[in-house]
Write a structure and sequence with these properties.
single chain; 261 residues; alpha/beta; Arc Repressor Mutant, subunit A; Rossmann fold; seven-stranded parallel beta sheet; three-stranded antiparallel beta sheet; 10 helices; 15 strands; 38% helix; globular
């Protein structure tokens, strides 16, 4: 394993629990304690983690880890959510996808649909996204028409934000919008860490006939910095079976249809 791969592996380990010890790196990656410490120091210098005496923590910067370092978290749950989201979408629909790991999983599910593989003179689906990674992923599917918003790239999430993004979204309509979040509360609604991304997510939801929150159950009960919209702006929540009965009841009382994948 070269150094770049090893640093990525350290961040993957950190993403699992939010903290890591030197001994964990030694055991999991088979490196010396000195190498483990040097790797942690290198990542700390890039502000990708915070060093502690015996290891490191990601709590102070976990929200800001690049998307590629977070995609392994709750992967099975996100896959189930993505498949449930795809099942809602009829052929020919126009679908909005914001950035984030769960929305990326939805894009993967859309790209693997059997109807996307069928020959057609018209697009099987149209996907509108402000995430450059999602657009690049779906470009490989000729039956999916991909529309990108303009905007300024957020390097951590690969999302486009700003007035150019708003201008494009204001000129289109969507059948579905799937919005990923960092936190979800039945009273406060969905929240994300960045106010610019929150504004784009809110506008995408407004432009859709059906606005759907896609969030694994670890996000429930959490609060992030920026509010996306009131709970009434969305009609559906798709989550995994980690949601409790009381949580589900609270969201349903707030007017959300809850689909447990």
């Amino acid at each position: 394993m070269n150094r770049a791969d090893r640093l990525r592996a350290v961040l993957d380990l950190l993403a699992e629990t939010g903290q890591i010890e030197v001994d964990d790196i030694v055991e999991r990656l088979g490196v010396s304690p000195a190498t483990a410490r040097r790797d942690l120091d290198a990542l700390a210098s890039q502000q990708l983690l915070s060093r502690t005496r015996g290891g490191a923590t990601g709590q102070s910067v976990a929200y800001d880890l690049p998307l590629r370092f977070k995609k392994g978290q709750n992967a099975a749950e996100k896959l189930a959510i993505a498949q449930a989201a795809s099942a809602l979408i009829p052929r020919g629909s126009v679908v909005g996808l914001c950035g984030g790991t769960t929305s990326t999983a939805v894009a993967t599910a859309l790209g693997s649909r059997p109807d996307v593989a069928e020959p057609s003179t018209r697009p099987t689906l149209t996907v509108v996204t402000n995430a450059i990674n999602i657009a690049a992923q779906l470009l490989m599917r000729p039956q999916i028409k991909v529309v990108m918003t303009g905007g300024v790239v957020q390097p951590r999430s690969y999302e486009l934000v700003g007035p150019y993004t708003d201008s494009v979204l204001a000129q289109i309509t969507l059948d579905f919008a799937f919005i990923g979040v960092n936190g979800l509360d039945p009273k406060l609604g969905p929240t994300v860490h960045d106010e610019h991304e929150a504004a784009v997510n809110a506008l995408m939801a407004q432009r859709a006939e059906r606005a759907v929150i896609v969030a694994d159950s670890s996000k429930i009960g959490r609060r992030a910095f920026a509010s996306v919209a009131e709970p009434g702006a969305f009609d559906t929540l798709i989550t995994d079976d980690g949601i409790t009965t009381s949580q589900r009841t609270a969201f349903e009382e707030a007017g959300l249809r809850v689909i447990v994948a």
